[in-house]
From TrEMBL:
Keywords: ATP-binding, Kinase, Nucleotide-binding, Transferase
PANTHER family: 1-PHOSPHOFRUCTOKINASE, 1-PHOSPHOFRUCTOKINASE-RELATED
Keyword Cytoplasm: no
GO CC terms: cytosol
Official protein name in the record: Tagatose-6-phosphate kinase
GO MF annotation, one: tagatose-6-phosphate kinase activity
Gene name tied to this protein: lacC_16
Domain Carbohydrate kinase PfkB: 17-243
Keyword Kinase tagged: yes
Entries under InterPro entries matching the protein: PfkB_dom, Ribokinase-like, Tagatose/fructose_Pkinase
EC number(s) from the headed UniProt entry: 2.7.1.144
Family the UniProt entry places it in: Belongs to the carbohydrate kinase PfkB family.
EC main group: transferase
Amino acid sequence: MKILGENSKAFGISHGKIGQKIIDMLRKFDVDVHFTHKDNFDSRTNYLLVEENGNCTVVAEKGVQISDADFQDMLLNMKNEIQNNDYLVLSGDASNYSDSTVYNKILTELKDKNLKVFLDTSGDSLKKCIKESPFLIKPNLDELSSLCGRTLTCNDDDILSAIDSLEPYNIEIIAVSLGSAGSIIKTPDGIYKATPPKVNVVNTIGCGDCFLSGLIFGISKNMTTTYMIQLATAASAATAESSMSVGFELSRALELIPLVTVSKIR
């Protein structure tokens, strides 16, 4: 979000020297950090292995189990810092906390703030938190398959049927990420399909995060649906051709916007 020029606050729980380094890196990008930091243990390190043929492998440490006390400290930070009508992004694997309804708990505590909630998680956390009717979810094909209870293909009709099955949850935007095939996005004014530009893919890690940041930024600036999707897709493509595992070159993303094809399919 900072790359796109939007101020943001970060909440989380960090541990040890590695956790402090994460905080320092966020502050380097002028992110307003409100972490609960503990000196015991160390936050996990993820290793990104990029082969010459472009294949990417992530080796992820398990991470520190989060205590109830640390979770409550983080929640208090959020209640104090998050303002009415803010945008809240709930992102990442929450399996290192004993309760898979962790995101539900956060939203319950913040329900009076009238937040626009963007949910980007998987597994039980995703299944349970959609019951809170977040504004946006961003499942990939496997995650969407899990939500609708059947194995899906990249076929448009198959995906549209799965999106329709989530109607009872009142989720305004469902952005289904399909990797190099682009995305299918259900919005309040219709369902759109985005085809990304052809780029030299160096690294696919972080593409989904940057895609989400583009959508959030577009919504916050009241962009047209088509341009919002073009921006998000271009940010993702710019990330794919970068050696960085996080972020993209804004100038490159802007160059790619006209090369993104967006069509309304329903």
